[in-house]
# Entry
Amino acid sequence: SHALTIENLKKIYENRFEALKGVSLSVEEGDFFALLGANGAGKSTLIGIITSLVTKTAGHVEIFGHDIDKDFSAAKRLIGLVPQEFNFNVFEPVEEILVNQAGYFGIPRKTGFERAEQYLSQLGLWDKRRCQARELSGGMKRRLMIARALVHRPRLLILDEPTAGVDIEIRRSMWVFLRELNKNGTTIILTTHYLEEAESLCRNIAIIDEGKLVEQSSMKNLLSQL
Ligand code: ADP
Ligand code: ADP
# Structure
């Protein structure tokens, strides 16, 4: 079965810029999938539409069979998003950010605290649980965003340039964490412009260029063409 199905997706921004020109692709449940493309290719626009943060101009999107137009809240619960930009309240303590996010999905505070403990420990942030988010380093903030995206236990995790600007050691520890998460059944889609990152993590890839899908294949197949 499919975690994500996209058919003929188009996006024209208000200034008439055509950011997506009819993209179709699908991601299997359990996959670790990379969306590759240069800056400006349309990756963030695509992710914005899947997560209902950006309205589409045309096309069809399904998350585990739920049409995002007809079944918006079901689709949203199944997705965890790690956006590129930090968008949490930097004055809030780390643990509270997670518990409040759980609350946003209707999860009781007690369960929220248990999950906060689980993910903060796994991501090496447990000693920082009482710190305000602004006290964290860039790499720690990224890991906090991953923990926040997981607190409602989504079946599909989407990360937009998850390791941009993160130093190599932290990047590798994030890779280990994501591999383990995928092994335990979470479907993962990430955007990156580092081929090395996609190569190290992903089984399947799509490449977009100027709003068009130019390739969808296995990582193995792509590498054999280089
Ligand atoms: P990527 O994530 O691959 O770097 P984006 O989806 O952010 O690409 O952007 C694709 C194109 O759409 C870029 O040319 C960008 O300038 C343009 N774009 C993005 N957001 C807007 C917007 N709100 N209004 C107009 N153009 C936009
Ligand atoms: P609403 O749908 O009520 O307008 P927002 O889209 O403003 O809510 O999101 C509220 C909070 O939930 C923000 O912290 C946002 O980053 C987060 N969020 C939204 N959608 C998701 C998602 N699919 N997965 C994880 N966090 C999400």
Summary: The mean pLDDT is 95. Residues 92 and 136 are 12 Å apart (CA to CA). The beta strands are 2-12, 18-28, 32-36, 58-63, 66-67, 79-82, 156-160, 187-192, 204-209, 212-218. The pocket of adenosine-5'-diphosphate (ligand 1) is lined by residues 13, 15, 17, 19, 37, 39-45 (CB under 6 Å).
